[in-house]
Design brief:
The complex is a heterodimer of chains A (106) and B (154). Chain A is built from two helices and five strands. With 106 residues, chain A is an alpha+beta fold. In chain B, helix 1 crosses helix 2.
């Protein structure tokens, strides 16, 4: 499975378009992380707990996108994009989407 | 009056420590950018030119979540009353964005890639507007690294 932000995969031609696939996860942080972030809000700078949380979420979203693409027999997912939205107090959705395609060697 | 002065403590601490940390961060960003200058190149183009040697494609992302300090938050509140440029947020966004791009490039570098195509940068607000929770801004830079002599595509 090739996952890419590109429109084409070099050396291959797209032989079938299977539509959009997506993967998402909604997570909230635990108290300890937000407490530290609260302190960080005074001096500013990176909120490492949140960075880690969203990185894990992004991995999860990509994993789900990949499973969805595998289930429909895709060879690659092109033009992948990420989006993060704050959907409720303390919870964030991380969302990945792209176009599943079948590939043939050029 | 004196009794209320402690309310200003976070603002003063934020100003002193926050300004110091921001200087440190910018120094670190400049040093790391200089180290990567001729090592990893990023492109927003979404098609790899035909004359570039094939390799393994790998989706990579670099991100950071940052918060503004208490002094800048107050300054920004005053600013938003009068309108105009909010310099307090500009420097925060600049360093966070450069940090995210640097992390993406550093990941590519650790995999032996020198080129990253289809790079995009996103900004998202975390806990925006909820006064009970800490607010943060997430900056994500992501793209497709071309790893030369990597595992062939299959």
């Amino acid at each position: 499975m090739i996952l890419t932000t590109l429109e084409t995969v070099p050396g291959y031609v797209t032989s079938a378009h299977l539509g959009i696939v997506n993967g998402s996860t909604v997570r909230s942080k635990h108290f300890g992380r937000d407490f530290m972030a609260g302190l960080k809000n005074i001096v500013g700078g990176e909120l490492k707990g949140y960075t880690e949380l969203l990185n894990e979420s992004r991995q999860e979203a990509i994993e789900r996108l990949k499973q969805q693409a595998e289930a429909i027999g895709a060879d690659a997912v092109l033009n992948i994009r990420f989006a993060t939205s704050s959907i409720a107090a303390g919870a964030a959705e991380v969302f990945a989407y792209g176009t599943a395609v079948k590939l043939n060697r050029a | 009056m004196i009794g209320y002065l402690w309310l200003l403590l976070p603002v003063i601490v934020g100003f002193i420590v926050g300004t110091y940390l921001e200087h440190q961060h910018f120094a670190s960003i400049r040093a790391r950018e200089a180290a990567l200058q001729n090592r990893v190149f990023t492109y927003t183009g979404r098609v790899i030119p035909a004359d570039i040697a094939p390799g393994e494609l790998r989706l990579l992302a670099g991100s950071t979540v940052v918060s503004v300090d208490a002094f800048k938050r107050l300054a920004a509140k005053l600013h938003s009353f009068f309108g105009g440029r909010m310099t307090a947020y500009e420097s925060l966004l600049e360093r966070a964005r450069r940090e995210a791009v640097l992390r993406l490039r550093e990941k590519a570098d650790s995999l032996g890639a020198t080129l990253i195509f289809g790079v995009r940068i996103e900004t998202a607000a975390i806990n925006d507007g909820d006064p009970r929770l800490s607010t943060g801004l997430e900056l994500i830079a992501y793209g497709t690294a071309l790893i030369p002599h990597g595992r062939p595509l299959s």
